[in-house]
Each structure stands twice: as C-alpha cells, then as structure tokens.
Design brief:
Blueprint (H helix, E strand, L loop, with lengths): L1 H21 L16 E14 L13 E18 L9 E17 L2 E21 L4 E20 L8 E14 L4 E13 L10 E2 L5 E13 L15 H12 L1
Antiparallel strand pairs: 1-2, 1-9, 2-3, 3-4, 4-5, 5-6, 6-7, 7-9, 8-9
Length: 253
C-alpha cells in the first residue's frame, strides 16, 4: 500500500505538470525576456509538527494503551532558486537550501510519559512545477530530497530507535501569490514520501519510541525575490522561432 500511495503522489504531480504545459491562458507570472535574472534568493520561516500516525498502511501503529502526541517546533530555511531555460516544460525551476528544524513530540503509556526534542540542520534540494491559476496565483508541486543531521537531542527518558543522520524523499505542495512584480509568497506543506534509512525500512514516518510512529509535517512560508540583472550579467533572451528568424534577417542586412 505504501507503494500505491507513493505512486499516486507521482501521478498527481505529473498530471498537474501536464495540464500546465498545455494551458497557457493567463498572463505570465514572470517575464523571461531578459528583464530579470534567472536565479535569486529564497527565505522560508515556518513551523513543524510531528503528527502521531496510527494508519497501518502508512506505517503507523495502533495500541490502545499508548497515547502519542505531536508538538510544534521551529523551522527556518534559506537558499537559492534557479529558473530553467525558457521557464522549463514540466519542471519550471529548482532550488537548494540549508535549514534548521526541530521535531518534537511525546508518548504516554499508562503513567509513564516520554518526550523528545530533536534539532537538525537540513540540506534540501527540490524540482518544482508551477500550475498557474490566475495572473497572480499558482499551485506549486515539488519533489525533493533532504539530508538531516542531528545537532542535539533532549528527551525524558532518552528516545530510542533514533539516528543522527536522516535521508528521505519528500513532497511539497504550495499555494503561490505574486504580491508585487518582484516578490512571490508561497505558503507550503511538506511531508516525507519515503525514508531511505535502513532502520525505517522504507516507511514515510519516523519511529521514535518503542510503540509510536510520527509523520513530520513542515509548514513554511516561502519568500522569493526576482532581481534585475546587472549590465555585466544579462540573462539570455528567449524568443519564439518566428521572432528569431526576423532578428537573424535584420542582422544580415
């Protein structure tokens, strides 16, 4: 079932990308004819939540004597984006970043309550599809990977079944708003699709204590800025074949 769920994510992602490829009815979100640089900075503050997972086909466990609870943690990400030539086809841009995140939760068995607070530095890479909904609104689907290294951990008692290094494939979905000609804001949700660490055996949730599994949820608000290129670093100008032929003819006269 985990394979089916992962496949559905990919099918929906590709369907959205295909629709965007064939429907170009709105005013473009960005001018690709040299007025803006094809790369820039992103900043994403946000929050995390460890959702207790009791859905068996998603790798969860259900035990009547165990009460698992998620806790809110902080998230902060900074990175760079690169727009693909001509705005891309299915994937429109990529980004890479470094982030700090805290994952926190608790488990209660009868009178014994255990807590964990795990703090990570995270490296992220994503490829992104933009499905335009209007002149200033769009849906963003992203597939990416993250490598998380645990900086420190607090828990009472000490959590078991944990590792310092985590590696997973994740999915992000966001709703984008073009606030100004140069500023985009994209509230985004992220969750793992599959964990590639051997101790998780391919699950998309994290086992922290003996009886509980948790799904990391990251809510962030991405700010992305367009910038005008310097005279010494002008990006290429993309034109359609008809316009290029006219330019070539002009230069040959």
């Amino acid at each position: 079932m985990r394979t089916i769920a992962s496949s559905l994510f990919i099918v929906l992602f590709c369907f959205s990308a295909k629709c965007q490829f064939y429907e170009r009815k709105n005013r473009p979100l960005m001018d690709l004819n040299g007025n803006y640089s094809m790369n820039g900075w992103i900043l994403s503050p946000g929050l995390t939540y460890m959702w207790p997972n009791k859905i068996s086909w998603l790798g969860g466990q259900r035990k009547e004597d165990t009460v698992a609870r998620g806790r809110i943690g902080l998230y902060l990400e900074i990175g760079r984006y690169h727009i693909f030539p001509e705005g891309g086809a299915f994937f429109n841009y990529m980004d890479y970043s470094i982030a700090y995140k805290r994952l926190s939760g608790s488990e209660e068995i009868i009178d014994l309550k255990s807590k964990f607070k795990k703090n990570y530095v995270s490296g992220n890479f994503n490829i992104n599809n933009i499905y335009q909904l209007g002149d200033r609104h769009f849906l963003q689907n992203s597939i990416g990977v993250n490598i998380d290294y645990q900086l420190w951990e607090n828990g009472t008692p000490s959590p078991v079944n944990t590792k310092k290094l985590l590696f997973c494939i994740h999915y992000r979905i966001g709703y984008g708003i073009k606030l100004t000609e140069k500023l985009f804001v994209i509230p985004t949700l992220e969750t793992p699709i599959i964990n590639l660490r051997q101790w998780e055996k391919g699950k998309s949730t994290y086992g922290i204590f003996n009886n509980s599994r948790y799904r990391p949820i990251v809510f962030s608000c991405r700010f992305a800025w367009l910038k005008s290129p310097s005279r010494a670093n002008c990006p290429p100008v993309y034109v359609n074949p008809g316009e290029k032929a006219k330019q070539d003819q002009h230069f040959m006269e």
